[in-house]
Every structure is written in C-alpha cells, then in structure tokens.
Write a structure and sequence with these properties.
Elements (H helix, E strand, L loop, with lengths): L8 H19 L4 H6 L4 E2 H6 L6 H13 L3 E8 L13 E10 L1 H8 L14 E4 L2 E4 L2 E3 L2 E3 L2 E4 L3 H14 L6 H15 L3 H12 L4 H19 L3
Antiparallel strand pairs: 1-3, 2-3, 4-5, 5-8, 6-7
Helix pairs in contact: 1-4, 6-7, 6-9, 7-8, 7-9
C-alpha cells in the first residue's frame, strides 16, 4: 500500500498530486505509450504554487517520494552544460522541472485505488435554512463532528467554523491562515468565489474530502443566502 491511513501533510500532497495528474492524463486522452515515454503533463510551477509557501518543503518531499517510487516523472530532460575550462566533466541528463507527468506505476496506483481515502462516514450532508448552514455528523480528522449549525449571516462565526475545520485536521493556525479564512468569507459575501478558489485550494486543498466539502458548503451557502436561494 502506497500510503498509511494516518497521512502526514507530505502524504496528503502526494495523494493530491497523483489525483490531479490522472485527471489531466484522462482529459488529454493520452495512450499507454505516454506513460512509458513521458509527456508534457501539469505545469510544475503552477502545481507548486497551489500549495502555498507554508507547504514548500512538504511539496518537495512529496515530489521526491513520488519520483523515488517511479510513480511520476518530470521534464524536459536536458544534458548537463559543462564548463569548457573545467577539469571535471559531467556526462548525463537532468530535469528542468517545467512539467510533471504520470508513469505507468503511478497510473496503476491511482487506477487500482491503492491510494486509500480517509476512513469514515459518507460525504457530509449539508443544507441551508433561514440563513443557517447545517452540518450533519461526519468524520473529520481523528474526530467525528456532531451536527452543528453555523449562522452564515455572521462573518465572524463563518470564519471561526473554517478555522475549526483546519484545526480538526491538525493544520497549524497562523495569522496568515486566519487572514486567508477571513478573505474567503469576504469574497463569498461579495459573491466572488472565482477569486476565492486559489485561497480555498491553499487552505483546504490537501485535507480530507469531508473537510473540503464542509468548508465549500459554508462558502456556497453564504452566496446562496445573499441571492435569496434557500
């Protein structure tokens, strides 16, 4: 099995990268030859930026693990440029890391469901009524959050709920994290989830599906309430 059931941030990021790569592979409708010969996959810099500066080391370790297991490759490969005046010559190739792609083993790992999802109940059920967001019991992190209600008309309460979701998944809460959560709620109140998506990905991108769905449910509930759709 590729990952332990109690996943670290590095393992979560590696899992997330594989899932994004297999979606990209299928969208491009590539053949099996691409898995063995390599192809221009996801832009490496864009992929890295999606995890934020706080996750830089974790991202690098995740890539290293995936490469060591021959699940992914990066490219393009170019020869070393040797100094004409140096007495030492390096013969070989290195990756410029402009893009990252799936290898056959990585495709099989995702395809065969060898990247375990977090155990717990089915996807959370949420609803809005009278300007309130309702969360039914769902497993988040190491705990099970019982049914709770969030007043989505109260921005502070909505921000607090998002922070609690992050805390439940052992995410360190910094001033930057709090500011991001506040900006997310503000953008939702402005009806602007387009600009909020990069912030959402930064905060919740590598968390469990349950946490992501609950967080997204709060934000979309805010917009629905603003539009009078309840």
């Amino acid at each position: 099995m590729l990952f332990n059931t109690c996943m670290s941030n590095v393992e979560r990021i590696a899992q997330s990268i594989l899932r994004r790569l297999i979606i990209d592979f299928r969208n491009k409708k590539l053949s099996i030859e691409a898995l063995s010969k390599g192809y221009e996959g996801l832009n490496f810099k864009e992929l890295r930026s999606g995890y934020g500066p706080l996750m830089e080391v974790d991202f690098d370790l995740a890539i290293k693990d995936l490469e060591n297991k021959s699940l992914v490759g990066t490219g393009p490969m170019v020869p070393y440029e040797n100094d004409l005046y140096s007495t030492v010559m390096v013969i070989g190739m290195y990756s410029k890391q402009e893009y990252i792609y799936l290898k056959e083993k990585g495709y099989r790992a995702a395809q065969d469901n060898k990247i375990p999802k977090r155990s717990g109940p089915a996807s959370p059920r949420v609803s809005i009524s009278g300007g309130h967001f309702y969360q039914s019991p769902v497993g988040i992190g190491a705990e099970v959050n019982q049914t709770s209600t969030v007043n989505i008309q109260n921005s502070s309460e909505a921000v607090s709920y998002l922070i609690k979701l992050l805390e439940s998944e052992k995410v360190p809460i910094t001033d930057e994290t709090k500011n991001d959560a506040q900006n997310l709620v503000k953008l939702a109140n402005d009806g602007n989830l387009k600009d909020g998506k990069p912030i959402f990905q930064k905060l919740f991108g590598v968390l469990s599906e349950g946490a992501k769905q609950l967080a997204w449910g709060v934000l979309t509930s805010i917009i629905a309430h603003q539009l009078g759709v309840q």
